[in-house]
Structure formats: C-alpha cells, structure tokens
Amino acid sequence: MSTALDAAKIRELTQELLAAHPPATTGRSDFLKARFDAGLAWVHYPAGLGGLDAPRSLQPVVDAELAAAGAPDNDPRRIGIGLGMAAPTILGYGTDEQKQRFLRPLWVGDEVWCQLFSEPGAGSDLAALGTRAVKDGDDWVVDGQKVWTSSAHVARWAILIARTDPDVPKHRGISYFICDMTDPGVEVRPLRQITGEAEFNEVFLTGVRIPDSRRLGPVGDGWKVAQTTLMNERVSIGGARIPREGGMIGTVAKTWRDQPALRTHDLHQRLLTLWVEAEVARLTGERLRQQLVAGQPGPEGSGMKLAFARLNQEISGLEVELLGDDGLLYSDWTMRRPELVDFTGRDAGYRYLRSKGNSIEGGTSEVLLNIVAERVLGLPVEPRNDKDVAWKDLAR
C-alpha cells in the first residue's frame, strides 16, 4: 500500500471514530478510550495496544483530523513522563500482561507516572545508584532514596531502577521495576525550587514490596532497559513538535513587536540570532522525528536536549533584559505543587528562574556533551577506572 493510500485510510478510520463518538456529545474520557481502542493513540504501536502497526509518520494525519473536529487530547504535558518515557520502555521490555495493564490508562491519562532514577549520590553518574532491591520470595524489597522526581506527588506508578547485585560492576547489577506509588513504604516530600513552587520531589522507599511480575527486562539488565527510557526522555524534552516562532522565542518576539519603546540595536541583534537558532533547533527536531520513523531514538536526542536547555536559558535572559525594570518583577512566590511546567503561561521572571533547571533535568548538559562527543562524533571515550570494579568496592 502506498503512503498516500495509507494516509487516506488513516483519515477514513479517524472519521469513523468521530462519527461513532462525536466529541460534542461524548465525554472526554470515553472519547480517549475509544481513540485508543481504535488504534489512533500511537498509530505506530501494535494493534491492540493503541496502534495499527502503521508508520509513525502518519500520526500527524490523525492529530490534524481530530484537532479540526474539536476532539479532546490527553493533556500530554500532564502525563509527559508516562507518554515519553514509561510507554516506550514498557512496549520494548514489558510482558504481554504488562502492556495490556499499563498502556491504555497511561495514554488516556487515568494514571500519571513518575521516574525514580536520580539519587542524592547518583545524579550525573546514575549507574552508581545505591537504592537496593533484595529478592524475598516472589517479591523484591526496595530501600533507598530518589530525588528530583517530577510529578511524584500526583503519580500512581513509577519507573524505578535499583541495585540487585552489589558484587558486580555498577552497570551490570541494576534491575528495572514498576513501582506502585500508593504502596506502604513510599513517602513523597516536596522540594521547593527557586521559583517558589515544588514541582520536584524527593521519594523515600522503606521496605517497599514490588512483585517480580512488575519487573521490566531480565534481572541485572536494568541499565540496558534504562537506556531506552533515557533516550526517549531526551527526545521528549528537546524534540517536542512546535510551530515556527512557538515556545519561548515566540513570547519574546511578541513583546518586541508590541512594545517598540523597549528596543535597542544590541537587543535586536541578539533577538535575531536567537530567533534563527530557535528555528534551526525546531527544524532539527523535525528531522529527528523523521529519523524515528525508521527506528528507536539514538544519541542524537542528547544534542536536541542540549540545544533546548541553552536556548531556553539565553532566550529567558534576553526577555528579562528587554523588559527592563519590569523584568525584575516576580508575580507569585506561593508554595504550590503543580502538575505540569508551563513556561509560556507565567511571567518573564518565572521563565528565567525555571529555565536554570533545563541544563540539569533529563541529563546534565555536561553528561550530554560527553554522549554527543563519544556516540555521535566518535571521539575517544573518557578513561574510566571503575569499569571492572564491583559496585560494593567503589569509593563513596
């Protein structure tokens, strides 16, 4: 079947969904469940799991048809960790039972996910993590602490990596689990940020029992599974689809057009430079998504996430300078625990402060530079003296 016929068939199936479940008279949750069951959630996923085994490039066809009909979406910003990180990992490593259990409520948004990876002593060096999981019958008993966990305060499920064998080198003694955030022993505490709110959390795990049936991948192979999560995370952070002059550069450009009294020659030159760089990043993201049609995300996603962090920080800094005295104002320091990050819905001060975290979350810029250097450019790997040392013997 040709690409054109494939697109035509996708449009036909989308129109059949709209006819059977008119958005104007169908509840939001019911419509989203019907969309998933019709295979129009992720068209490239397998049939029965929200997809049609179709090319990934046909998803925009579905999205455009539904948007034109006023159909509801699944609020992807609120459930971004589930959509961008948990789902592809479950699809790649989950059992049939796990896929059937988790993917539908994840995509519909009935269940929010978070990520229990980073630890106080294992941030940039994630493989050095110390949270332990010890086998006890058909369960694993987990003890440890995780940090910088977005959405933990609203999440039902978490993707979790823990050390199951301290007697082998750090990368080989990790296993990957799905953790129920409502289980006894899971404690979530807010981490108040420089913005005033607590979007992040620290999570303490004390004797948390996880059935072996909620393990993803083989025991001890968790680092390999985690790489799928991390590569998808970087694409979801840095490679989101936005229109030309979308995102933060659009906000600054609008201020420039609406308030000519703020303009100076120097600010004009900086705005032009950042506008071009933002457009280059947007087009690079489109190319990256085209590459995803042929397979899984690779290390190129790290480059996109690097560009995203740098541009956000430079653009937000320009905006504060452009606004002059008004750029120093900050509207609200109220302690809140939001469900999502909204860069464009707040003021310039918020954007400036929040963007500081972009070079840390989802992999620090320093680590991502190493990944790009070694895996994209083919430069020599940095020497490591812990490669063949058992985790228990590492200096900490």
What does this structure look like?
By secondary structure, the protein is an alpha+beta fold. The protein starts with a helix and ends in a 20-residue tail after the last helix. It has 11 helices and 8 strands.
Shape: globular
Q: Into which percent range does the helicity of residues fall?
A: 40-55%
Number of strands: 8
**Structural class given helices, strands, pairing?**
alpha+beta
What is the terminal-to-terminal distance? 58 Å
- Major sheet summary line: 4 strands, mixed
**Unreliable stretches, pLDDT < 50, 5 or more residues?**
none
Question: If helices are DSSP runs of H or I spanning 4 or more residues, what is the number of helices?
Answer: 11
Rg is: 22 Å
What proportion of the residues form beta strands (DSSP E)?
5-15%
Give the helices and strands as they follow along the chain: HHHHHEEEEEEEEHHHHHH
Strand order of the largest sheet: 1-4-5-8
Q: How would you state the average pLDDT, rounded? A: 90
In short:
With 396 residues, this protein is of the alpha+beta class.
What topology emerges from the helices and strands here?
Elements lengths: L2 H18 L7 H10 L21 H10 L11 H14 L2 H13 L4 E4 L15 E5 L2 E8 L10 E7 L10 E7 L5 E6 L8 E12 L3 E2 L5 H17 L8 H12 L6 H28 L7 H24 L24 H7 L10 H12 L20
Parallel strand pairs: 1-4
Antiparallel strand pairs: 2-3, 3-7, 4-5, 5-8, 6-7
